[in-house]
Design a protein that fits this description.
By secondary structure, the chain is of the alpha/beta class. The protein has 16 helices and 21 strands. Bound molecules: alpha-D-glucopyranose.
């Protein structure tokens, strides 16, 4: 246990401003009971691993009762744990045990929609048109003769249409209902007071059980224009009928008040996908959310100019509202970094995901290592998606008959879907599921590819050059060195001939972070190497930072000789 673990979770009301938050996709993390699906028992077994990795909090993707039509983002009961994952008592134990190890818990709240199996939706279907039960959703008569046409042509985030027609009890075609995602995820009507009351109550339910915060799913989508217009060709700010409506902020002000009502205030983290940085920042005003995921940074290609611009626009957007930035390399929805950075087009965009994209995994892995140092050195909080610390690649050859993700099916099979980043983790070299579950247990819900054992925790734990060892060092240094809480500034003296088109260079107090995306450059004189993502090279004039490598350096105190060790991952 780290020396100061006992104090890490004591009342520091600003812990979230620079926390390291590890995302657990419960279904794929560890299977305690051997049924092939990850569960809370599995997470509890591996809490010491997360403590040793050096994380401050865990964000759990939904663990609630769910038909799992969208991996749990179709919630049937927000106050029950799905039996595949465990029980409410286990969740309470897990929150408490994590806390004892210095790790806070963030739960995922899905407010835009519920599962079609949720009691509200079931009673709305039963109660029929015009009933108060239907007012909690977006039921609407169709257009055209016989109401055969859907009320709008809004396009789903999962492709396809957003309305499904119901059938009346007498078998005739009935009203339509809105679902921005799958038909199994009907959208709630946030103009309805029951919906608002219920969610504030759900927040209290989890906060009362020790959750330190919530991640808010699809946070910009909740409010709809009740007149149901079509989406304009070029909607101006606040003009889109179902994205980022101005009225939405009132909801989060209410949630912030709930969060602030606790002695140790709880934290709101938003999933806000908005290209407009100023509109994005509005969610982070002091009486709304604390932080939101920085998808702009996550989606950027491996290109110094582009990354630099993302960092700068991120900091510029956050400054006026006083909220810290977040730095995100991936999550359960996007292509794993070692795969993405190994591609010719290394930007991330949902519409361009395709089977069979050529990938140079060695280059991708090298860049993902450098990206770990880059993201961890930036000011704000840091997210690590499970398995990225092991350098897991996207699994791109899952047999078609095991694919589970609705994104795949709704694209007509063109989009591979998101299962490739959700393959169960390897904990041990051998064993029937590489330690994901007990040996001899059921097969993991998605098959693990050949070679998975070489990427396991066991294989990497004692290997100095592994991705896991790198992550442990990165997080330990970031945690232990006060420079990483210091001011950020771009460094104006770039090494050698490098320009800002090739090298990202910035300081946090007296630590200099260099990320080289071009040919090797000489290291600047007068610095010690704290950590590097790959071996340094020896050039004519001394140590050089090779291509696709990042290093953390500290200015050498006057009168001391510099130590530019050439081996990767130097730790002092
Ligand atoms: C969010 C989640 C994603 C889910 C969607 C619908 O984007 O991250 O996994 O499918 O919302 O709830």
């Amino acid at each position: 246990m780290r020396e100061d673990d006992s104090t890490r979770t004591t009342a520091d009301p600003t812990w979230w401003r620079d926390a390291v938050i590890y995302q657990v996709y419960v279904r794929s993390f560890a299977d305690g009971d051997g049924d092939g699906t990850g569960d809370l028992a599995g997470v509890r077994q591996h809490l010491p691993y997360l403590r040793d990795l050096g994380v401050d909090a865990i964000w759990f993707t939904p663990w609630y009762l769910s038909p799992l039509a969208d991996g749990g983002y179709d919630v049937a009961d927000y106050r029950e744990i799905d039996p595949q994952f465990g029980t409410l008592t286990e969740a309470e134990q897990l929150i408490a045990e994590a806390r004892d190890l210095g790790i806070r818990t963030i739960v995922d709240v899905v407010p835009n929609h519920v599962s079609a199996a949720h009691r509200w939706f079931q009673s709305a279907l039963d109660a029929g048109p015009g009933s108060p039960e239907r007012e909690r959703f977006w039921f609407h008569p169709g257009k055209g003769p016989g109401g055969d046409e859907m009320p709008t042509h809004w396009v789903s985030d999962f492709q396809g249409t957003t309305w499904t027609r119901t059938t009346n009890p007498d078998g005739t075609p009935g009203e339509w209902y809105l679902h921005l995602f799958t038909p199994e995820q009907p959208d709630l009507n946030w103009n309805h007071p029951d919906v608002r009351r219920e969610h504030e109550d759900i927040l209290r339910f989890w906060f009362d059980r020790g959750a330190a915060g919530i991640r808010i799913d699809s946070a910009a989508l909740l409010v709809k224009d009740a007149t149901l217009p079509e989406v304009p060709a070029h909607p101006g700010p606040g003009e889109h009928p179902h994205v980022d409506r101005d009225e939405i902020h009132d909801i989060y002000r209410g949630w912030r008040a709930v969060a602030e009502s606790y002695d140790e205030p709880r934290v709101l983290v938003g999933e806000v996908w908005l290209a407009d940085r100023a509109r994005f920042a509005q969610y982070l005003r002091p009486d709304e959310m604390h932080t939101a995921f920085n998808f702009d940074f996550m989606a950027r290609p491996w290109d110094a100019k582009s990354l630099r611009e993302s960092v700068q626009t991120t900091l510029d957007a956050h400054a006026p509202v006083g909220a810290p930035a977040t730095w995100v390399l991936s999550n359960h929805d996007v292509t794993r970094p070692v795969t993405r950075y190994g591609r010719e087009d290394s930007a991330f965009a949902f519409p361009t995901k395709r089977f069979g994209t050529p990938t140079d995994l060695a280059a991708g892995r090298r860049r993902a290592r450098a990206a770990a140092l880059l993201s961890a050195a930036l000011p704000g909080s840091l997210y690590v998606y499970q398995g990225d610390e092991l350098g897991l690649p996207e699994v791109e050859d899952l047999p078609l008959d095991v694919i589970n993700d609705p994104m795949h099916f709704r694209s007509g099979g063109v989009d591979p879907g998101r299962d490739g980043c959700r393959v169960p983790l390897p904990w041990t070299r051998g064993g029937s599921s590489h330690g994901f579950g007990p040996d001899g247990g059921a097969h993991p819900w998605l098959p693990q590819p050949a070679g998975w054992g070489d990427l396991s925790v066991e294989a990497q734990a004692d290997d100095d050059a592994s991705m896991l060892s790198l992550y442990r060092r990165v997080l330990a240094l970031r945690h232990g060195d006060p420079a990483f809480r210091g001011d950020f500034a771009w460094a104006d003296v770039l090494p050698g001939e490098a320009t800002s088109d090739q090298v990202l260079a910035f300081t946090r107090d007296d630590v200099l972070c260099l990320v080289n995306l071009g040919p090797a450059v000489p290291l600047p004189a007068g610095y010690d190497v704290l950590l590097a993502s790959a071996d340094l090279e020896q050039g004519a004039a001394g140590a050089e930072l090779p291509t696709d490598t990042a290093a953390w350096l500290r200015r050498t105190p006057p009168g001391h000789a510099t130590t530019t060790a050439s081996r990767c991952c130097t730790r002092r």
